[in-house]
Amino acid sequence: MITFLSGGTGTPKLLRGARLLFPDSDITVIVNTGEDMWYQQGYLCPDIDTVTYLFSELLNTESWWGITDDSFHTHEFLQTLGAPECYLSLGDRDRAVNLLRAGLLHAGLTLTKATREINDRLGIGATILPMSNTPCTTYVKHDGKMIHFQEYWIKYRANITIDDVQYISDTPLTATKEVLDAISNAELIVIGPSNPITSIGPILHCDGVQEALMNANGYVVSISPFIGDAPISGPARELMIARGHQPNSRGVYEMYEPFLNCFVQDIRDPIPVQNAVRADTLMKDAKTAAELMRFIQNLKNKSPLS
Q1: Cα(157)–Cα(160) distance, integer angstroms
Q2: CA distances, 40 to each of 33, 86, 99, 111, 169 (Å)
Q3: What pTM was computed for the model?
Q4: How many domains would you assign to the chain?
C-alpha cells in the first residue's frame, strides 16, 4: 500500500501519475481539512473534493479544482439575488456534493464516514481519508485580524500581507485511527509537493501523525514544492515566511526532516539541500507525473528498508 499526504493541487498531480503505475485499490490518500467550511448551506471540503474528483474521473485538470464542464447557474443566480459572500464560485455538481456531505454530517456521520459514503457512490477504488474528524480551520493573520484561508486565497487573491498562520480547532485535533493505520501499514509514504503550511501543515498538526511518521515501517519521502525561492504554484512563499521558515526547499526539508528517509527537489532548484536527490518535479502532464512517481518508487526499492 502507498499512502500520500495531500493538499489540493501539487499532490493530486502526483496522484494522477501514480494511477498509471498502481491500481487505485493500492492507494490511500490522507487529505488536509484545514480549509473546510460551511458555505451556503453546504459543507465545503476543497482538498478532499479535488482528490475525490480525480479518482472519479470528474476533476477539471485545467484549474485543478471543481468538476469538468460544470455549470454555474446556482452561483450566478445567487449573485443576481444579492446573496452575501459569493466569493467562491461553486459549480452546480460540485455544490451538490457539498450539500450531500452537509446532509450526511447533519445525520450524525463523521467526516471520515461521509467521505467514504460519497466515494462509494462515485465508485472510487482508492481510500480517501480526512486527516481528522475534528473540525479545524487554517487562519491567516492580517492587520491584527484572523481570516479564513479561503478568504485570503480566493476573496483577497493572496494580495494582503500576513503576519502569522494558525490552525484552530475547538477541541484537540486528533488524527483518526484510519489515518494512523494508513501510515503504519504503508510500504511507501509520500508527503506530496503541496503547500507545506496550509496543506501538509494541518495534517502534521494532528496529534499522532508526526509520531506515526517517525515510527513508520515504510519508506517516507517528500517532494519539495519549491524551485529556488518560488513555489511551483500558490502562496507558499508568503506563508512559509509568516510561519518563520525559509521560503525554499531547504526550509521545507527542515520542516519534514525528523521523519524523512529521502527528500526530493527539482533538478532546476539552485538552492542545494544536503542529502537531497534530484528529479524533474514539474509534472506538466500525466506522463511526467508517472515518471516522477516511478523515480520515487525506485528510491524505495533501492533502500535498505525495502
Answers
A1: 8
A2: 18, 9, 9, 18, 21
A3: 0.96
A4: 2
